Amino acid sequence: MNFEDSAAEAAYRKQVSAWLAEHAPAWSTAGARRDSEAEIVRLARGWQACKAAAGYVGITWPCEVGGQGGNAIQQVIFSQEEARHRVATMPFQVGMGMCIPTVYSFASHAVAQRYVGPAMRGEEIWCQLFSEPAAGSDLAGIRTRALRDGDRWIVNGQKVWTSWAHHSDYGLLLVRSDAGLPKHKGLTMFYVDMRAPGVDVRQIRGMTGETDFNEVFFTDVVIPDSQRLGDVGQGWKVAMTTLMHERFAIGRPADAPSVDELVALARSVRSSEQTLLDNAAVREAIAGFYVRDAGLDFIRMRVQTSLSKGRAPGPEASVLKLVMAKTRQDIGAFAMDLLESGAIRDTDSTPLDGFRYYQLFAPGLRIAGGTDEILRNIIAERVLGLPPDLRVDRDLPFNALK
Ligand SMILES: Cc1cc2nc3c(=O)[nH]c(=O)nc-3n(C[C@H](O)[C@H](O)[C@H](O)COP(=O)(O)OP(=O)(O)OC[C@H]3O[C@@H](n4cnc5c(N)ncnc54)[C@H](O)[C@@H]3O)c2cc1C
Prior knowledge:
Helix content is 43%, strand content 14%. By secondary structure, it is an alpha+beta fold. α1 (7-23) runs parallel beside α3 (72-82), α7 (259-268) packs antiparallel against α8 (280-308) and α8 (280-308) packs antiparallel against α9. It is globular, with a radius of gyration of 22 Å. The chain binds flavin-adenine dinucleotide.
């Protein structure tokens, strides 16, 4: 494990941080909790265009499609440095992180040329239409179906939890094209125009009060075969390419309250003659969070070292995500205990608002990109060598499953 950047990485970090110090403030936001959604989208578009003009979008993407031809560690360094600034990136994270790399990997050069540039410059937003009411962890169980009709497909079904679909121009859509095959084999991937007739996007309000999730209904939506990504029946392989690109997300969320902020909070609250920080039980609990965060930093360095050496990170990325999300939720809950408060949103103060927000937001972190239980299964199988989950339905035709 490396604790320091290599000379080349340090030079890149210096260049990036100088550029960010000059340009990021112009696009900074008060944060997800205080800007309106329209303002976040406006700022995110501007920031995306600014980064694209400077060559900081598509850092790992091939030069032929307009990317920078860089390596994974450069992307990680840019993301780490960018996270030090309050810039809006949310509406573009799914598109840049997962959808566009899938498009240029599986579409013709002409199609890639059409879509990569506008997405890079913040002109078009993309979403990921994978999860369904009965298929999340078991993604291969999706039921949205596509029937072939000459050189077009007719799609019917429902997706759910689609982040930012209501602002999206295009979506990456996984469908079942042959229910007579085993579940992983009858899938096909398309990209879809989110304004096509028959696409109905309905917002869902989460417990943080935000409405960036959606249900998306498809009723007789016509998709030309030219919008297929990969071969018919190869949708699982294409989907795995999409999900592989999630691996660069190795930091803690930029706006998550830190242990230092927890210390400041405990110092600011008085109980009789003392502050809460003078209480031994409070100090012990905060020390526990500090130890967990220090452990996370070391695992993060292991992941980063793998990327730096050109290797894909192994199961340590699962450990990182599992512990990080639970720690953020626990810190939020502990802050509420200190304040003898609940998670109801009633003030706009900092850092209190950040803790309260994270207590409500972190359960989602523990679900998105692999639930706690799925990550534990990965760790059990790949690290501890325990027997794999039973997969009795793997070889049966999908339409024979009860
Ligand atoms: C913030 C957020 C953003 C998201 N954005 C998107 C998006 O943009 N596009 C998209 O397609 N989806 C998105 N999702 C959906 C996400 O991918 C799914 O919620 C996730 O895969 C879990 O699926 P599920 O909700 O159907 O739960 P299920 O898979 O039904 O799980 C229910 C419970 O059963 C447990 N469980 C399931 N299988 C096993 C098993 N084999 N062993 C042990 N326990 C198991 C799970 O851990 C969980 O506790 C998002 C989710 C969140 C929270």
